[in-house]
């Protein structure tokens, strides 16, 4: 309809422009010259409007078009409407892209958008962190030039994305890559950091291997003595020795199972109600009695502030405190001096166990809290140690917003300590 209206207006403008020329030519003569002047004036008017339109489109670029008359009015109005629609579509597309990028930034995975040739045209922040990409500096760069791993290059070239690619970066991170075609000749590359999963899987394998090894030794001893007793080869002193050894091995397995259950129970409770009042001085009195029975050849000094109680979980704190004291007894020779201290400090309340034993080499210190890790494996097995005590201590202390500190000098002794924060000191029972 606008097109028909535009042709009518053009015809009307031509007639309106030529009508005066026809009248003047009929009266005065020189009709061709008057018609030429009229058509020339009409062309100049159209040329003037064309310049105004060009100025608006390329220089002014405002939303409101210049005013138009005659046949230019529907043309300018139509261009204005088209510009409004395009701007609306651009805003919608920009909003959609913004929402997509915002969602991609919130993903726990690295996201990279590339062409099928590998040219990068967007990546999220996690991709910059995990893959060392730089945005927008790497815009247009080929991802194969930035991730120089033969396995990754072959994975993209084969274009068989039915299975993910597991890749170990030079930084030691384990990444799982998935590639999806999401539009014409474009790829969506997603990389997930599975380092912790690999570590947990390795810890699980080591855990079962260690448990199997720890149980295999006493079970082998029990099986050997049972076969000997069944065949009637043991009598008198040998029989008594066999029964005593079997009892010790049974107690060792029972202790291992108990510590495994304790560790499992502590790890299964990531958050605790720390409102319980824990009487650490009374707890240490009981630990002291047990320690003197366990190490009659050791010398003990217990320096305990009698009214210093805290808020926390008594079961877990008892496990932490007793394991540190018993470890000091089990890993120091007879005659060693063990000092246990519980006192208030400006930072809170500090518990420490010091000894003058053989000490621990520096390279062992970072791994002491690992499950089944032993500094002296032969001595630990001889004393019945399972290698779980410090792992229990570590997790119990983490629930009380503190951690185990270890200081040791070979030949001079060791000190195991932790600091309970001020906010967990129970001041209700003081005074």
UniProtKB/TrEMBL annotation:
GO terms for biological process: cellular response to phosphate starvation; phosphate ion transport; regulation of DNA-templated transcription. NCBIfam families: phoR_proteo (TIGR02966), PRK11006.1 (NF008235). It is a multi-pass membrane protein. It catalyses: ATP + protein L-histidine = ADP + protein N-phospho-L-histidine. CDD domains: HisKA (cd00082), PAS (cd00130). This is Phosphate regulon sensor protein PhoR. Keywords: ATP-binding, Cell inner membrane, Cell membrane, Kinase, Membrane, Nucleotide-binding, Phosphate transport, Phosphoprotein, Transferase, Transmembrane, Transmembrane helix, Transport, Two-component regulatory system. Residues 210-424 form the Histidine kinase domain. It is an enzyme of class 2 (transferase).
């Amino acid at each position: 309809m606008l097109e028909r209206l535009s042709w009518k207006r053009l015809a009307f403008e031509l007639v309106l422009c030529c009508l005066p020329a026809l009248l003047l030519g009929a009266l005065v003569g020189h009709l061709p010259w008057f018609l030429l002047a009229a058509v020339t004036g009409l062309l100049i008017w159209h040329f003037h409007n064309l310049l105004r339109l060009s100025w608006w489109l390329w220089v002014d670029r405002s939303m409101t078009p210049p005013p138009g008359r005659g046949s230019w009015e529907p043309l300018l109005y139509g261009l204005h409407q088209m510009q409004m629609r395009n701007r609306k579509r651009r805003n919608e597309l920009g909003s959609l892209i913004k929402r997509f990028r915002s969602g991609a930034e919130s993903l726990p995975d690295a996201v990279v958008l590339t062409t099928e040739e590998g040219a990068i045209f967007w990546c999220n922040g996690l991709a910059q962190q995990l893959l060392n990409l730089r945005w927008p500096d790497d815009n247009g760069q080929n991802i194969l030039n930035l991730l120089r791993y033969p396995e990754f290059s072959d994975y993209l070239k084969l274009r068989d994305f039915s299975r993910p690619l597991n890749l170990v970066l030079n930084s030691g991170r384990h990444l799982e890559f998935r590639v999806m075609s999401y539009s014409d000749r474009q790829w969506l590359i997603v990389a997930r950091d599975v380092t912790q999963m690999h570590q947990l899987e390795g810890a699980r394998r080591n855990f079962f291997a260690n448990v199997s090894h720890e149980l295999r030794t006493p079970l082998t001893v029990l099986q050997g003595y049972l076969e000997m007793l069944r065949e009637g080869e043991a009598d008198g002193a040998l029989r008594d020795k066999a029964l005593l050894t079997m009892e010790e091995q049974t107690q060792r397995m029972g202790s291992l199972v108990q510590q495994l259950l304790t560790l499992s129970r502590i790890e299964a409770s990531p958050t605790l109600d720390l409102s319980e009042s824990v009487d650490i001085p009374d707890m240490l009195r009981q630990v002291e009695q047990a320690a003197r029975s366990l190490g009659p050849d050791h010398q003990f000094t217990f320096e305990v502030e009698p009214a210093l109680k805290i808020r926390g979980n008594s079961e877990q704190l008892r496990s932490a405190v007793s394991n540190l004291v018993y470890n000091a007894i089990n890993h120091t020779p007879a005659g060693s001096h063990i000092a246990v201290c519980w006192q208030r400090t400006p930072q809170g309340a500090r518990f420490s166990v010091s000894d003058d034993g053989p000490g621990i080499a520096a390279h062992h210190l970072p791994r002491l809290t690992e499950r089944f890790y032993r500094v002296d494996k032969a001595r630990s097995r001889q004393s019945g140690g399972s290698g779980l005590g410090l792992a229990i201590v570590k997790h119990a202390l983490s629930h009380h917003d503190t951690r185990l500190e270890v200081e040791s000098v070979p030949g001079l002794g060791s000190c195991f300590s932790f600091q309970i924060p001020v906010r967990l000191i129970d001041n209700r029972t003081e005074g």
